[in-house]
Design a protein that fits this description.
- The complex is a heterodimer.
- By secondary structure, chain A is an alpha+beta fold.
- Chain A has five helices and five strands; from the N terminus they run ββαβββαααα.
- Chain A has two domains: 3-78, Roll (Ubiquitin-like (UB roll)); 87-155, DNA polymerase, domain 1 (Orthogonal Bundle), CATH 1.10.150.
- Chain A has a five-stranded mixed β-sheet, with helices on one face.
- Chain A is globular.
- Chain B is α+β, with helices and mostly antiparallel strands.
- Chain B contains twelve helices and 14 strands.
- Chain B is globular.
- The interface between A and B is medium-sized, with 30 and 31 residues.
């Protein structure tokens, strides 16, 4: 039986009626047209679909939309402020932290959560925090450098 | 991947949750969902109703008693434990184990009770509860009962939680001043389920020799197992030789199976090596570094 939910997505109040089996990822992409959240493996292994729910990074493929009822969801579309890229997004561009870009939304959201919790991480802490995100184009070095640079820029 | 359709309820009290289970045979409990959702997506299960426990405040409550005993509500997220310095200090073995559970985003959602009830043979929390002699509180229509960790894991993905019952909390006894711990596991990649792992709690006597040891081996059988002979052999001893002998004894008594992740022979080797490493940490004869 469909269920009515009320939540905020990127700061905007949303009311919707969803089937309980609909994942949060599908709800964001199909019902709200927020297609920045990417679906890779759809079983929690790849991290591409990572979003923030109440400030915590979660796999939106492993959460049903009904479980986000009453919550605050932030997707990659919510990271830019007033049309300007966030310092982290700018650092990803400056440090070549993406290639094809498929996994990038998940990395950006996971790294945003890390920096909110730990504004001055070590490279090892960045690697640990991003270890659940899979990148397949090339290496992770640029990503780690970008996160460290963004942390430095935000502390300055 | 889409699960079969199900109904969804998120009751506000434990009583309502128990009533829903009683009224809907085949209903499943939804805790963090980090194991259940893939199971539903792959259609290995198709329950008619999911009862989400997230709105029941008492299930997320933890109590650290004055003597150091720690009761964790079943809906405590791994990450909540991991980020609480007081509970980490109260239960050092659990603190050593939790960072090995999957990844941050999974630990943000996954719950301790969910892990215990799912009872994956390669999961960390079941082994930690066994090594720490923790006790589970289970609620049912007739009231609550307590089951020791040693009696809780009854088989592959099987526990003592019966139909219509809900695990509400796990209680870790106070950590004795002379208890030492070790934790070691081998996984293909950090965050994967362990091929084999070991969680050990070792109580020393006033002279620094082993008084009592509990060595839980996971990933090597249908459920985590205590290496009893190895623990017995440690009593009165100290040092690397004791850790080595315990590793050999554990290997001799545990017969892992082969699967597509690892052969039985390789797992046997891991049992020996990881028992030795975990005990090495506990006995202070090896660096306390995660394997």
């Amino acid at each position: 039986m469909p269920v009515e939910i009320a939540l905020t997505v990127n700061g905007v109040p949303v009311r919707a009626v969803v089937e309980p089996r609909q994942s949060l990822a599908d709800f964001l992409r199909e019902d709200l047209a927020l297609t920045g959240t990417h679906l890779g493996c759809e079983h929690g292994a790849c991290g591409a679909c990572t979003v923030l729910v109440d400030g915590a990074a979660v796999r939106s493929c492993l959460v049903f939309a009904v479980q986000a009822d009453g919550g605050e969801v932030v997707t990659v579309e919510g990271l830019a402020q007033g049309g300007a890229l966030s310092p982290l997004q700018r650092a990803f561009r400056a440090h070549h932290a993406l290639q094809c870009g498929f996994c990038t939304p998940g990395f950006l959201v996971a790294a945003t959560a890390l920096l909110a919790e730990n504004p001055d991480p070590t490279a090892d802490e960045v690697r640990a925090a991003l270890s659940g995100q899979i990148f397949r184009c090339t290496g992770y070095v640029g990503i780690v450098e970008a996160v460290l640079a963004a942390a430095k820029a935000e502390r300055a | 991947m889409r699960p079969a359709a199900f109904d969804y309820r998120a009751p506000a009290t434990l009583g309502e949750a128990l009533a829903l289970l009683a009224a809907h045979p085949g209903a499943k409990l939804l805790a963090g969902g980090q194991s259940l959702v893939p199971v539903l997506n792959l259609r290995l299960a198709a329950p008619p109703l999911l009862v989400d426990l997230r709105r029941i405040p008492e299930l997320a409550r933890s109590v650290l008693e004055h003597d150091g005993a720690l009761t964790l509500g079943a809906m405590t997220r791994h990450r909540v434990f991991e980020r609480d310095a007081r509970v980490r200090a109260a239960q050092p073995l659990a603190a050593a184990a939790v960072p090995h559970i999957a990844h941050v985003a999974i630990r943000n959602r996954g719950t301790i009770g969910g892990s215990l009830c799912h009872a994956d043979p390669a999961a960390e929390w079941p082994a930690v509860t066994l090594a720490c002699d923790a006790a589970m509180t289970i609620a049912g229509s007739a009231g609550t009962r307590t089951v020791d960790a040693a009696d809780f894991f009854t088989g592959l993905f099987e526990t003592a939680v019966g139909t219509g019952e809900i695990l509400t909390a796990v209680r870790f006894p106070a950590w004795p001043a002379r208890r030492r711990h070790g934790f070691a596991e081998v996984a293909r990649r950090h965050g994967d389920f362990a091929l084999v792992g070991v969680a050990a709690a070792v109580d020393l006597d006033e002279r620094g020799a082993v008084a009592l040891a509990r060595i839980a081996v996971f990933g090597a059988a249908d459920a985590p197992v205590l290496a009893q002979e190895a623990a017995q052999a440690l009593v009165g001893r100290r040092g690397e030789g004791a850790a080595r002998e315990a590793g050999r004894l554990a290997r001799a008594r545990i017969a892992p199976r082969s699967d597509h992740h690892a052969s039985a022979e390789y797992r046997s080797e891991l049992v020996e090596v990881l028992v030795r490493r975990a005990l090495g940490q506990a006995l202070g004869v090896a660096p306390a570094k995660a394997a």
